[in-house]
Amino acid sequence: MYQTLLTSLEENILTVTINRPNKLNAINEVVMRELGQVVQEIYSNADIRSAIITGAGTKAFVAGADISEFNGVREDGTALSKKGQDIFSGIERSPKPVVAAVNGFALGAGCELAMSCHFRIASSNAKFGQPEVNLGLVPGYGGTQRLVQLIGKGRALEMLLSANMIDANTALQYGLVNHVVEPDTLLPKTIEILRILNTKAPLALAGCIKASNAVFENENGYEIEAKLFGELFATEDLKEGKDAFMNKRKAIFKGK
Predict the structure, then answer these.
(1) 223 an active-site residue?
(2) Catalytic site residue from 29, 75, 92, 112
């Protein structure tokens, strides 16, 4: 179905693997287009409850954008940036949880892709960085914004201006990742977390994501939270959750 992505759907978890290991999974035009397509699949396929984005092999999640494609795009640079921003924002705004399983280098566009996911699990060999200034560029796919949001302005600017990489444990200390695990347990750990999320009410998960995103989108998050709280009062899932709680049983949510 895809040229540059491998996908598998098990236990309602879609695993998306960027599959260009000979290029350290660098994002080219095809990868970006197919990421956009898979995001639409996540939104529309009712069998998908959550998703993982990772990279093929052990060396890299995504080592950046494919610089060889930058030749001749000067007049289209803004459009190129906007396209990537739109696709990564689609990940960030997904009503279903999307988690990055970062195996190795997450640099440039790779760090930006990881940051667009709802949270990140890193292998102990992961390294994060935004080295665009070494090329005479700034990050183009939301990196300046999300890095500041996630780790604070001072630390973000040090990374952006120095182009230095940070290792997995530093990323954990900074709050860029939620967990650091050994490489062979990266996907099992990510799946373990998503199995838990998949037992929760889908509409409530979507509401938590939407309300949390409002913090960074110049919206009245309290107003959005109250509206979502009210909307969820009318759902069958709330009735199921209340009944399960009162009767000390496990709730079975249907997203209705």
Answers:
(1) no
(2) 112
Distance (Å, whole) CA 128 – CA 111: 6
How do the pLDDT tens digits run along the chain, 256 residues long? 899 999 999 999 999 999 999 999 999 999 999 999 999 999 999 999 999 999 999 899 999 988 777 665 555 888 889 999 999 999 999 999 999 999 999 999 999 999 999 999 999 999 999 999 999 999 999 999 999 999 999 999 999 999 999 999 999 999 999 999 999 999 999 999 999 999 999 999 999 999 999 999 888 999 999 999 999 999 999 998 888 888 988 888 888 9
Token pair 């996908």: residue: 7
Active-site entry in 69, 75, 92, 132: 132
Question: What is the C-alpha to C-alpha distance for residues 191 and 9, in angstroms, rounded to an integer?
Answer: 12
User: Is 11 marked active-site?
Assistant: no
- Cα–Cα distance measured from residue 228 to residue 219, given in angstroms and rounded to the nearest whole number: 14
How far is 149 from 237, CA to CA, in rounded Å?
A: 32
The one-letter amino acid at 28: N
HSE-up (13 A, CA, CB side) for residue 63: 16
User: What phi, psi does 183 have (nearest 5°)?
Assistant: -55, -40
As a whole number of Å, the end-to-end CA separation of the chain is 30
Structure-block tokens of residue 175: 């709050």
Domains of the chain plus CATH, in order, are 5-197 (3.90.226.10), 202-246 (no CATH)
